Each structure stands twice: as C-alpha cells, then as structure tokens.
Amino acid sequence: MKRSSIGFIVFLVVAVGVIYGLSRLTQQIGQREPTPYTSEKMQASHEHGHEHESAREHEPEGELMPAGVGNVKGSPEAKVKVVAILPPSECQAPTLRILDEIAKAEPKRVRVEIYGMNSPKGAQLLQQYGATCASIFINGKKDFTLTSEGQTRRVICEKSPGMSYQSTDLIEIVHMELQRLYGKGFDEKTLKALREKGKQIVAGGHGTTELASPKAKVKVEVLTPSQQGSIYPLFAETVRVLERMKEKFGDDLSIDIYPIVTAEGQKRLKELKLNGPAVIINGKVVHEIPGPNKTKRKIVTAYSGGASIFSPKDVADVVSAYMQQAKR
Q1: CATH of the structural domain 71-202, one choice from 3.30.1340.30, 3.40.30.10, 1.10.10.10, 3.40.50.300
Q2: Where in the chain is CATH 3.40.30.10?
Q3: What's the whole-number mean pLDDT along residues 193-211?
Q4: Residue 236's pLDDT band (boundaries 50, 70, 90)?
C-alpha cells in the first residue's frame, strides 16, 4: 500500500511537470509567430505605405504638370493644337509656364494639352506619335525651321529645353502656325508681351524691358546661365543687386538680361565674343576701378569655369565706379 502511494505521487509530479513544460513551449511559440490577423495587418500596412510612396513619386512638380488626366486649355475648335508630353521635372518648368502663357493669350485659336509621360494618356500619345522621349507636338509636328533676324535654324521640340529647342521657341512656332492657318499670328502687342514674358520665365523671373534706359550713363547686360547651372544662384543674386541699384540711379542705369539658352542670348554671346555667362558693363567684362590707397583694382565679370569668379558686390562696385566717372 505504501509503495502504491509513493508511485502515485511520483506519477503526479511527472504529469504536472510535463503539463507545465508543454504550456511554456506553447507560450514561446505564440510569442514567435504572430497571429494571422497581425500578419495580415502588417502586410496591409506595408502595401498601403507603398501606395503612398507610389503616389508621391507621381505627384506633379507644380500645378501646371497634370496628375494623369491632363491639363487642357483652349477651345476644342482651335486650329492650332499643342500637345506636350513631359516628365515631372524641374527643367521642364519654363516650358510649362510658357505654354500656359500661350494658352491664356489665344484661348480661341490655340488649344494646349499637357500630359505626364507616365500617365496612360501620355504613354498612348507617345506611341501614337512614334516618340520615345519628352516631346511637344504642334499640329502633329515637333520639327520646325525658325528664321529670326536673318538667321535660320532647325528646332526639334523634344527632350529638355536647351538641347534641341528653347522654351521660348514655342512662342515663335505657335505664332508661325497661327499665320499659316488663320492668316494672322499673335497681334503685335500680344507677341511682344509673350516674348518679354518668355525671357522673364527663362531668366528666372527677372524682366528686361522695364530696366532698360536708352539715355543711361551706365549700361549693363547680364547673360544668365541656365537655371539648372551651378552658378545660376550667383547670377540671380547679381540681378537682384542690380535691380536695387536701378531703384537708386533710375534712368542713369540701364539693365538688359539675356538668358544664354535663348536665341537672343546666343546672339549676344557671339557679338561680344564670349564663351559663357557674363555681366557686361559699358561693353566690357574686364574692368579697372580705383582701389584702396590710390591703387587700381581689376575685376573680371565673366565666368570662364575657373575657381576665381566675381561676386555681386564686385558688379555693384564697378557700376558705382562708372557712375561716379560719368558724373564728373
């Protein structure tokens, strides 16, 4: 009887130990493996995150770049139709803004349609036109010949502006197509305003006409680089400094701004025999002005790609020195 009791007690102890061990093992497994609900929730959250990332990738750079359905302006009856298929890139911003100005200038005779390259409609149009890169079609064409001031050049409206076309070329092409299809292009006032606005857009918002003074004592020409250029901020700040000086000197100071990516800018580069962006003051880029203690100070206001480069203050000093000389 005693042996039987001892055996029963041993059995109970072993049984309790086994049950406890199984319980601990089950608990550990439960901690390692999430429940189906948790796993599904994590997966859904992960997929949802990818959807947000994808949406961010395809968000337009600005309000002019369509999100997918396209940005369409102008009458469907217009004979001049511009179809732009572009990527959401900053380098396309001047083109988008100029197209917007064209659409606002002639809403009855010009229709402008802008589509993202990655949108279904954009991809469909690229295939339809047989194009593989960013393209702008005016009445089904993107290859044109433009003549300006006796010079003829070929323009292909594809890829980024500054390569085979300039954003401002679109104004001239649409003007030419209006003449061809309606017998009359933009009226003189509208064309002048569009050209001026185009220069402002390409130059980063800085105008030219309102700063020009035919009777000025000091004349400044700024040949600005592309907005994508590393030295663009220097020239943008230089223009701001000159604008403040214009407020001070009034008609005694004349300022003209030519983006070098435009036909007008290229023309001035050739005429002045320059190789790149520059600030031309009274027809020169090499200046000698009075320095401290009756010394002479030499300042070069042209960018040649070297480490030594002028500053906006240098330009202001040269303008001030020439202004003093002119008033003697």
Answers
A1: 3.40.30.10
A2: 71-202, 209-326
A3: 70
A4: confident
Cβ 116 vs Cβ 68: under 8 Å:
yes
Helix H, strand E, coil C: the string for the chain is CHHHHHHHHHHHHHHHHHHHHHHHHHHHHHHHCCCHHHHHHHHHHHHHHHHHHHHHHCCCCCCCCCCCCCEEECCCCCCEEEEEEECCCHHHHHHHHHHHHHHHHCCCCEEEEEEECCCHHHHHHHHHHCCCCCEEEECCECEEEEEECCEEEEEECECCCCCCCCCCHHHHHHHHHHHHHHCCCCCHHHHHHHHHHHHHHHCCCCCCHHHCCCCCCEEEEEEECCCCCCCHHHHHHHHHHHHHHHHHHHHHEEEEEEECCCHHHHHHHHHHCCCCCEEEECCECEEEEECHHHCEEEEECECCCCCCCCCHHHHHHHHHHHHHHHCC
Tokens 């020439």 appear where?
A: 322
Taking only the tens place, the pLDDT of each residue in 39-68 is 333 333 333 333 333 333 333 344 556 555
Lowest mean pLDDT among 38-52, 76-90, 153-167, 267-281: 38-52
Q: Is the pLDDT of residue 210 over 50?
A: no
Band (pLDDT 50/70/90 cuts) for residue 78 is: very high
pLDDT one-digit tens code per residue, 12-47: 555 555 555 555 544 544 443 333 333 333 333 333
Q: Which CATH number fits domain 209-326: 3.40.50.2300, 3.60.21.10, 3.40.50.300, 3.40.30.10?
A: 3.40.30.10
State residue 149's pLDDT score.
63
Phi, psi of 110 (to 5 degrees): -130, 130
**Contact of 219 with 249, CB cutoff 8 Å:** no
